[in-house]
Amino acid sequence: MIRKNEYIDNAYKGMPKPKMQPRNRLPVSLFLIGAIALLSSCSSANPTDASRTTVSDEPVHLTFYARQTISEEDFKLIFTEPLKKRYPHLTLEKIDAAKSKIEDLIAAGQTPDIIFTYGADLKSLEPLHFLSDQTPFIKQQNIDINRFDPVVVSAAKDEKGLYALPLAVQFNALYYNKDIFDKFGVPYPKDGMTWDDTIELAKKVTKMQDGVQYRGLDPESLNRMSFSKSLTYLDAKTEKAAIGSAEWRKMFEMMYAIYNIPGNKPQDLKKSTSVSASLDAFAKEKVVAMWPSVNVLTNLIEAEKQGVNWDMVQYPSYKESPNVYGTVDAHFMLVTSTSKHQAEAMKVIALATSDEVQTISAKQTGRFTPLASDQVKKQFMAGNPGLNGKHMDAIFKSKTAPPQQFTKYEGGARNFAYNALVDYVEGKVDLNTMIRNTEEAINQYVVTQKAGEKK
């Protein structure tokens, strides 16, 4: 979820503080026994010592490295306030990736205890030696994995183990500006539309009037649209570019068709492919009629105060995959393999994923829970007056596409594809040439990255 100009999920409002259960105090001997058992179960790939697994009431300061943006207000609501009540001997400091590079922290010997990031970024942590199977710590804290949506959890797993637990998961919806449709006398979008339906509707509201160019549809990003097909830029097994497939070709052609509706192409196409820029065009500039994207409800509640008359319908689907929207797009937390306080760090994660805190998060902050609990799901933005009359049922009408297997080079490969798409849409290169040149660039990028890792 985006809040104001933050990139994803940052919308927390103050609420009554959660009533936490009293902390159980166990004999130190039991903790020592648990630590020894854990040591015996861990492999050499996940080194653990007693100092990391033994839990006591001694003060412990933990660091939380946010590669996924989270506001100070949100952090306080979900993490520090519940932690202060349940485990007063634990303190948690947030370090924003935008302000502190992880490489600098490593060089200074200040590696974080917890990392907060998005699913596609998990594998990029592997070269930093932060990833490890979290199962021993999950078991130690008696976290029931069955409480989570299994599809969401599967996005953080492979044959080596489970690397993280989810804090929140995105949904997709098609947001639309009712005033633009009213201006041109065109019926509003409806649930169940395919992408072809959506593009045809966009043509009817892409018009110039009173010196303003209204754009019928901003697709938000190539990444978002490809998620419904569970596509990746790299083959996870071969680590070779995968954008030459028939599905990717259809994706590029659809993006071309959308942007080349006469009058629908933004002036700065490269800039507009960022989520924040395309959101601004919809919610601030008020020139986009339809915007398919992630959970931005808190942004739109604020935008309505500035005159944006919006509503939402089901996210468009591909005709061969009806009622399917994006793949698992979740925000995950993990205990680093280098943390000296792994057990304490997992206590933080356990608390943040408890029913109690997840209910607060869903109701007050607009984060969609990764828990399977219908009771918690029903609390999503419950009672928020800014959503009165909105078609909230649209959120629940689609199912998630299967999660992808990402490589640690996925982010870099995506950047090459984004830049190539701009050239293709603007007619600077044909599709075949664009795909060939981009695959060559991606493959060379991977070779260069691997060579650097060997040094």
TrEMBL record:
**Do the record's keywords include Cytoplasm?**
no
Q: Which domain of life is it from?
A: Bacteria
Key words of the record? Cell membrane, Lipoprotein, Membrane, Palmitate, Signal, Transport
Sorted alphabetically, which PROSITE patterns does this protein's record hold?
A: SBP_BACTERIAL_1 (PS01037)
Is Signal among this UniProt entry's keywords?
yes
In the record, which residues are listed under signal peptide?
Answer: 1-45
Hey, which family's this protein in?
Answer: Belongs to the bacterial solute-binding protein 1 family.
Specify the protein name: Extracellular solute-binding protein
- Say which species the protein is native to: Paenibacillus allorhizosphaerae
